[in-house]
Write a structure and sequence with these properties.
Number of helices: 16
Strand content: 5-15%
Structural class: alpha+beta
CATH class of the largest domain: Alpha Beta
CATH topology of the largest domain: D-Maltodextrin-Binding Protein, domain 2
CATH superfamily of the largest domain: Periplasmic binding protein-like II
Helix content: 40-55%
Radius of gyration: 21 Å
Shape: globular
Length: 384
């Protein structure tokens, strides 16, 4: 009987794995003489897709023409559950998952489940030694490769006194109806950060730490007070009817059009928009406190049974090199490095020398984060 149950569970996992193969495939420019093709799965927003396809992969394949990189893009992790099931089933059966490298929130979940290539072999990724140990430890086997944080953006023409704490932000929202927004957490990290910060403001430090470090359904029940706070904002946010932008880009669009004066945004995305001229110069950013909005590293991961593990390690090691970290910081990504600033080009490092990414407030463990996104959709929108 036990064998039959186990067989049914495995078939279920494999069925989910099949669904995961339906995600959009994007092939990056590559060399015809490549000896290995790295299958890269990106579970993030379009700016991360652009970072890889337009910047990192062309530079990597120029330096290492023996490799190709094929990208499967899953916007904002819509298929993360299926992909997780696919890799779990593959590792359990000692099969190749058809994914060699992952950039996405599920990296730490896979690490916590023991499904990744072990980082004890640091000699295979020598540049990992430059990454702060606390970040590597937090990755649970996943590999930090860039960082960013969520900031509050504001229209400096209209907002003269900045609300500097979360309590002051919530009061500002109610005093300025229709002039604040945040996107649905499932559509992007800036909205997820704001929601997480409100939820955290109603919990103890011990409970927050539990949600940051492991799946914890019991502690998730303590989000109840935070949901009440978020529901109380519905008639004061943009639209004043409990509707929200679907993604990060939607929030930026409302800011650019002058329809809102205050909103949480990713540091890299707002910097890119300002640099490109798609965001008015009157839009400025700052950080709030008590508590601060979330930030921290993004992680790469190599499944334990990946076909091209060696090639994936070569790509990871290159991404952690000063040359690649310069591209992450100075290019359109406008990200933060995970290696010491002293190793970057001085002109690139000049604007970020005071930022310590090890102090950025982390978000929830992947499983809890997914639960939060699903719960927000039923607990908050339209509840007036």
């Amino acid at each position: 009987m036990f064998k039959n149950v186990l067989k049914k569970k495995m078939l279920s996992a494999l069925a989910l794995a099949t669904v995961a193969t339906l995600s959009l495939g994007v092939t990056a420019p590559s060399s015809q003489a490549a000896s290995a093709t790295i299958q890269l799965y990106i579970s993030a927003d379009t700016n991360i897709q652009d970072l890889w396809v337009k910047t990192l992969i062309p530079a990597f394949t120029k330096d290492f023409p023996q490799y190709d990189v094929n990208v499967t893009f899953d916007r904002n992790g819509a298929n993360d559950a299926q992909t997780l099931a696919k890799i779990t089933a593959a590792v359990a059966t000692k099969r190749e998952p058809a994914i060699d490298l992952i950039d996405g929130g599920i990296s730490t979940t896979l690490g916590g489940a023991g499904l990744l290539f072990p980082l004890s072999y640091t000699s295979l990724i020598p540049n990992l030694k430059y990454v702060p140990k606390v970040l590597v430890t937090n990755g649970k086997g996943a590999i930090p490769y860039r960082a960013s944080t969520v900031l509050m953006a504001y229209n400096s023409k209209n907002v003269k006194t900045l609300p500097k704490t979360l309590t002051e932000v919530l009061a500002w929202v109610k005093a300025n109806p229709g002039k604040f927004t945040y996107n649905a957490p499932s559509g992007g990290g800036s909205g997820a950060s704001f929601v997480t910060t409100v939820l955290d403001s109603q919990m103890t430090a011990a409970d927050i730490l539990k949600l940051q470090t492991a799946a914890d359904k019991e502690t998730e029940a303590k989000w109840a007070k935070g949901w009440e706070v978020l529901r109380s904002l519905n008639k004061y946010t943009y639209g004043q009817n409990g509707t929200y932008p679907t993604n990060n880009a939607g929030t930026l669009d409302l800011l650019a059009k002058g329809l809102v004066d205050l909103a949480p945004v990713w540091s890299d995305q707002i910097a890119s928009a300002l640099k490109a001229g798609t965001m008015p110069k009157d839009i400025k950013v700052y950080g709030i406190t008590a508590p601060s909005l979330n930030g921290g590293p993004a992680f790469l991961s190599i499944p334990a049974t990946a076909k091209n593990r060696s090639a994936a390690r070569a790509l990871v090691n290159w991404v952690l090199s000063p040359a690649a970290q310069n591209l992450i910081v100075a290019g359109n990504m406008n990200g933060l490095p995970v290696i010491p600033v002293s190793k970057l080009d001085p002109t690139v490092a000049a604007g970020i020398s005071s930022i310590d990414i090890t102090t950025l407030r982390p978000g929830y463990f992947s499983a809890n984060g997914n639960d939060m996104k699903a719960a927000w959709a039923t607990e908050v929108p339209g509840k007036l």
